[in-house]
Amino acid sequence: MSTFHINSKKNDFSDTILMPGDPIRAKYIAENYLNNFKQINKTRLMLAYTGYYKDKKISVMSHGIGIPSATLYVRELITEYNVKKIIRIGTCGAVRDDIKLRDIVIGLGASTDSKFNRIRFQNHDYAAISDFNIAYNAFLLAKKINLKIHIGNFFTTDSFYTDQNMLDILKKYNIVGIDMETAGIYSVASEFKAQALSICTVSDHISKKESVSSKDRESSFNEMIALSLETALLI
Ligand code: HPA
User: How does this polypeptide assemble, per the annotation (predicted)?
Assistant: First the structure.
């Protein structure tokens, strides 16, 4: 079978999936963390794999950049491929002084400048929230292994380059991470009765104009993958 954007067989996916934005990262996770994995999609190079992590069947698929891309994949995965649990693993920007480059942040909820949720929610404000069970398990695990995380409100933007005025407001409202997908993923997951959580590493501190080198990007990414895979075992 295939959907508009995914060309995989009905049972190719696990009900639990990790979703980075970048296809190369999806490949990296499969090659470095999964046993007996196989590639199950390459349409538009949005690579997807299914394999085993400590005996649990897990899929990994990239979702691209932005709400339109991420949500069409999430929707098709849930409605056509029976995916139920989605952990987005990505990078995000930060504005708070106490949040540093490479820190791990978890989006308990996500505000947005996108109209995506308003269009779907008849112009009312939709509180886009993560799944409590996944968030709770990720939190407990991080505590157990002494991994520093920040949990709170994300800001999902349609525009990567945010103006200074908005950055000041995001800081004032204690936003923990700025990304381009989470608010959409959370609402689509809710609509179709699936669970979702975003776990991101801070790749750029926007106020301080700092960004992670490509070498450090990999090691911070590994911490996030490990946390996400171990969380996937518990949910
Ligand atoms: N803004 C939006 N999305 C992002 C950023 C950012 O600064 N960094 C990583 N994803």
Answer: Homohexamer; trimer of homodimers.
CATH number at residue 124: 3.40.50.1580
Q: Is residue 31 part of a domain?
A: yes
Residue 89, annotated as binding a ligand: yes
- Asked whether residue 203 is marked as a ligand-binding residue, the answer is yes
Residue 206 in any domain: the answer is: yes
204 is catalytic: yes
Question: How many helices (H) and strands (E) are present in the chain, helices listed first?
Answer: 7, 11
Mutate to test the pocket of ligand 1, among 92, 95, 101 (most ligand atoms within 8 A of CB): 92
9 lies in a domain? no
pLDDT of residue 1: 78
Look-up: residue for tokens 């509180």? 127
Q: Whose CA is nearest to atom 3 of ligand 1?
A: 179
- Is 180 annotated in a binding site? The answer is yes
Tell me the best of 112, 176, 203, 207 to mutate to test the pocket of ligand 1, counting ligand atoms within 8 Å of each CB and taking the most. Answer: 203
> Is 44 part of a structural domain of the chain?
yes
Q: Which of 174, 189, 192, 183 is nearest to 125 (CA)?
A: 183
Could you read off the pLDDT of 165-186 as tens digits, one per residue? 999 999 999 999 999 999 999 9
Tally of domains in the chain: 1
Domain range holding 29? 16-234
